[in-house]
Design brief:
By secondary structure, the chain is α+β, with helices and mostly antiparallel strands. It contains eleven helices and 36 strands. β34 and β35 form a beta hairpin.
């Protein structure tokens, strides 16, 4: 018998060596499959477990095994790193599947349970549409990072991010994930519960889920469906505590981040945000927290929402220098990968002069976060900069709110600036680049719409700006987005509408369902659905609870019209679980002497969707308008990330690949033509 075993081991070694892998090269993944939380967990014996590497097609199986009598297992693999991600799944039954996301590096230990499945289904929601995890490497790795914000895979327990401020019980996501884990625990014990879950999560005109992970991914993508029925199912188990105590408005899962990287410069009124091709998020910041004074910094976040730390050629958050002063809505990334910021200059500041020049400058940073612009920014021309856009020739388009003008820095050269004077009081706000190189502009007519609002379109012809059309519409227009066919969707904060314009400038309609209330931020997803971030009313007495709205775009299915609401009448909200909102330094939102706030999602001004389908929404202004205005303490706290909620935009070629070093030009801005 011993001799036979030795022969078999020798043959196995030969086979492995033939395939270029020695036994010594194998990496071992050990783990346990269980049901229930740490205090009530039950090992699941004799369960099939498979280790996979995700691809853009069917995932590759790297090893299979079966759990022992105490739910333990071990899988050996020749792979330790992946250009995409590893994941492991346990088939508890034909329809009950538990999943754990391992990320791009294979760990040594994992726990697979209901909570890891909730995290996997939500973080991978946009890559789990066909029953398997599949997609481009760039998006998968971002999704894996968001998974780690929800669960600690090694232990199968809630992650430190979700357990601590500004999450924990400051939002309801910690309890929501536990309630959903309770639902899966009930499924593992009762096939009838699983059947009910499948019925409640089958998309309209879509197929019935084939397993529990797929069912939860359906819920993550459409969290407003059958909320009451889902909630009833979560009450059938108490394995994970504490769960939600009341039914939510929708089954969203969010991660709130509010660390700028420096507590001397707390996040205060982030205004607008954009992603570079590595997935890093660059955001403007209005003020110093607790004051109306102009901030002298902006923000950079890693793809998982944590502040950029400056390692391995990445930027360091917060950004300083380069003339940054009270960033508003202006941020764009040019063809070199460099980042441009517009300085609005909100109020007074220490050691600077915000008026007239300090609030009219533009700042430029390399992709590594090094300022290129001088200490007072690029001056001359623009005043109180708002929207910005960069075209394929390196031209930087600028909405000059303070002098009713549009400017272009030709080829990115502030000395080669051309302008166009609009009508008095136009106060341009958003700037969006069309596929043909022309630019759309929203003119807000002031913060509250004291002057007429309009939408305009411009072209740069022979070095001069030409206005193609100008249409008066709405009130206090704010952000704008262009869909895949070039239609312009415009947030009109003052009259509570979303306006739709054809590429030729013809108005096609206006809409206000799905929880829209003072719309400000707006974006479009990879399926041309429209997402709206709401600011709420600008009036005394309001105490606004932030919300995210979703409308059908040009691909509205049969039975729905363009502009019909998808989100519930409340919008997608982020309720509190009962704890006071705290800043990153542990201070209350309104200070130790101010009123307590239980509103984690505040007044929103900008949205952006990353390549994993996470929606980043900016808390620009605090909820209590009376306190914020009279007390001059306006700056909202943090960024709300809705996990896996939206179809991601179409990735660029750089984003599809795994080699992120090639995602931006190595040409430093100092060596540009105009330098």
């Amino acid at each position: 018998m011993v001799m036979i075993l030795r022969v078999l081991l020798t043959i196995a070694a030969i086979v492995l060596t033939t395939h270029g892998v020695s036994a010594a090269d194998l990496n071992s993944l050990s783990g346990v499959v269980q049901s229930g939380g740490s205090s009530s967990s039950q090992p699941l014996a004799h369960i099939n477990v498979t280790l996979f590497e995700a691809t853009d097609g069917l995932p590759t199986a790297l090893g299979r095994t079966t759990t022992d009598a105490v739910g333990g297992f071990s899988i050996r693999s020749s792979r330790s790193t992946s250009p995409t991600i590893f994941f492991v799944q346990a088939d508890v039954s034909e329809s009950v599947r538990f999943v754990a996301i391992l990320g791009p590096e294979l760990p040594t230990a994992v726990t697979i349970n209901e909570l890891t499945t909730v995290a996997a289904s939500y973080s991978m929601a946009q890559f789990l549409r066909t029953g398997v995890i599949s997609g481009n490497a760039f998006g998968l790795r971002i999704a894996a990072g968001m998974n780690d914000n929800i669960v600690a895979t090694a232990t199968g327990q809630s992650s430190p991010v979700l357990l601590s401020s500004p999450n924990a019980d400051q939002t309801n996501s910690l309890r929501s994930t536990r309630s959903l884990a309770n639902l899966l625990a009930a499924c593992a014990r009762n096939p009838g519960v699983t059947a009910s879950l499948f019925a409640l999560t089958t998309p309209p005109s879509g197929r019935t889920p084939r397993n529990t992970a797929e069912a939860l991914a359906n819920l993550a993508r459409d969290p407003g469906q059958n909320v009451d029925g889902i909630y009833a199912l979560t009450l059938l188990s108490d394995s994970y505590a504490p769960p939600l105590s009341t039914q939510p408005d929708a089954w969203t899962v969010t991660i709130k981040v509010n660390d700028s990287g420096n507590d001397d410069r707390l996040i205060s009124g982030p205004g607008n945000i954009t992603f570079d091709k590595r997935g890093y998020a660059w955001a403007t910041n209005n003020t110093f927290q607790g004051t109306p004074n102009s901030g002298d910094f902006n923000l950079v976040f890693k793809p998982n929402g944590q502040p950029a730390d400056g390692s391995n050629g990445t930027p360091l958050s917060p950004l300083l220098g380069g003339g940054l002063l009270g960033g508003g809505f202006g941020v764009t990334i040019d063809l070199y990968g460099s980042v441009w910021f517009g300085n609005f200059g909100w109020g007074s500041c220490s050691g600077c002069n915000p008026s007239p020049d300090g609030n009219g400058s533009v700042s430029l940073f390399t992709l590594t976060g090094v300022p290129v612009s001088p200490s007072d920014g690029y001056q001359g021309g623009p005043v109180r900069v708002m929207g910005m856009a960069a075209d394929e020739y390196g031209n930087i388009w600028i909405g000059s709110n303070g002098n009713d003008s549009i400017y272009v820095f030709r080829y990115g050269n502030p000395r080669w600036s051309v302008g166009f004077q609009q009508y008095e009081g136009s106060q341009p706000f958003a700037v969006e680049l069309a596929d043909d190189g022309t630019v759309w502009v929203t003119n807000g007519g002031g913060f509250t719409g004291a002057y007429p609002s309009s939408v305009a379109r411009y072209a740069l012809v022979n070095g001069a700006l030409q206005q193609r059309f100008l249409h008066f519409v709405g009130k206090a227009l704010k952000a704008m987005v262009l869909d895949s066919v070039g239609n312009a969707w415009i947030a009109s904060q003052g009259d509570n509408q979303i306006y739709l314009f054809a590429p030729n400038g013809a108005e096609l309609g206006h809409f206000n369902g799905g929880g829209i209330d003072g719309p400000w931020g707006i974006t479009v997803d990879g399926e041309d659905n429209i997402w709206v971030g709401n600011f709420g009313p600008l009036e005394l007495g309001s105490n606004f609870t932030g919300r995210l709205s979703k409308l059908w775009g040009i691909n509205a299915p049969s039975g729905h019209k363009v502009g019909d609401p998808i989100s519930p009448s409340t919008g997608y909200t982020v309720p509190t679980a009962g704890s006071e909102v705290l800043l990153h330094n542990g201070e209350p939102l309104y200070g130790s002497q101010g009123p307590a706030s239980l509103i984690p999602m505040m007044r929103q001004t900008a949205l952006a969707i990353d390549q994993a389908g996470n929606i980043w929404s900016l808390n620009n202004w605090k909820p209590a308008f009376n306190t914020d205005t009279i007390g001059k303490n306006p700056g909202g706290d943090g960024v709300i990330i809705f996990v896996g909620l939206a179809p991601p935009p179409r990735p660029t070629q750089c984003e599809i690949g795994s080699g992120q070093d090639d995602c931006a030009s190595n040409e430093p801005p100092l060596k540009r033509l105009w330098r």
